[in-house]
Amino acid sequence: MLRAVYPGSFDPVTFGHLDIITRSAKLVDELIVGVLVNNAKSPLFSVEERVKILEKTVENLPNVKVIPFEGLLVEFVRKMEAQMVVRGLRAITDFEYELQMAQTNHKLEPDLETIFLTTGLEYSYLSSSTVKEVAAFGGDISQFVPDIVIERMQEKMDKKGECKL
């Protein structure tokens, strides 16, 4: 069985992420979307919220599982008994960083392969940070994220008393 891990913070998940998830799920028997717990960042959504949102958005993909993790990616991949990591690329700047990470992971785990998928052109500019910034200023994010993300972001902003989406 060919199993891959697609790691990320997914704060929030965007249509660009879903593009990579959908396409990579067609290439493997099982795709594990690894939701990173990164204590160095203060995310908009908790890891539990991000997992629930992702599970809802990929429920139509039977070979995709969503699992949170923290620590080294190679350790998580080993624990999941996966053979490769999937990474999405938007631009050359992404490639430089991702290549360095892939080479480091390969050095730590020589049997681990990383495959890169370029994001569809319609999502090549899109990032979670951009979505959060547009939302914070009351912009329409419906062309960037699934409806469930809009709903959850609105709930967060209502609690904080910030502008409406």
TrEMBL record:
Q: Which cofactor does it need?
A: Mg(2+)
Residues the record lists as binding ATP: 9-10, 17, 88-90, 98, 123-129
Q: Which reaction does it catalyse?
A: (R)-4'-phosphopantetheine + ATP + H(+) = 3'-dephospho-CoA + diphosphate
| A single MF term (Gene Ontology) | pantetheine-phosphate adenylyltransferase activity
Recorded hits in CDD domains, A to Z, give: PPAT (cd02163)
Q: In which pathway does it act?
A: Cofactor biosynthesis; coenzyme A biosynthesis; CoA from (R)-pantothenate: step 4/5
Tell me yes or no: is Cytoplasm among this UniProt entry's keywords. yes
Record's superkingdom?
Answer: Bacteria
Q: Does the keyword Magnesium apply?
A: yes
Q: Which Gene3D superfamilies does this entry report, sorted A to Z? A: HUPs
Span of domain Cytidyltransferase-like: 5-133
Xref: SUPFAM superfamilies: Nucleotidylyl transferase
Which residues carry the site feature described as Transition state stabilizer? Answer: 17
Any idea of its EC number?
2.7.7.3
Q: What class of enzyme is it?
A: transferase
Record's subcellular location? Cytoplasm
Classification via InterPro entries: Cyt_trans-like, PPAT, Rossmann-like_a/b/a_fold
What are the UniProt keywords, alphabetically?
Answer: ATP-binding, Coenzyme A biosynthesis, Cytoplasm, Magnesium, Nucleotide-binding, Nucleotidyltransferase, Transferase
Q: Where does substrate bind?
A: 9, 41, 73, 87
Q: What does this protein do?
A: Reversibly transfers an adenylyl group from ATP to 4'-phosphopantetheine, yielding dephospho-CoA (dPCoA) and pyrophosphate.
**Family in the record:** Belongs to the bacterial CoaD family.
* The protein's assembly and partners: Homohexamer.
Q: What is this protein called?
A: Phosphopantetheine adenylyltransferase
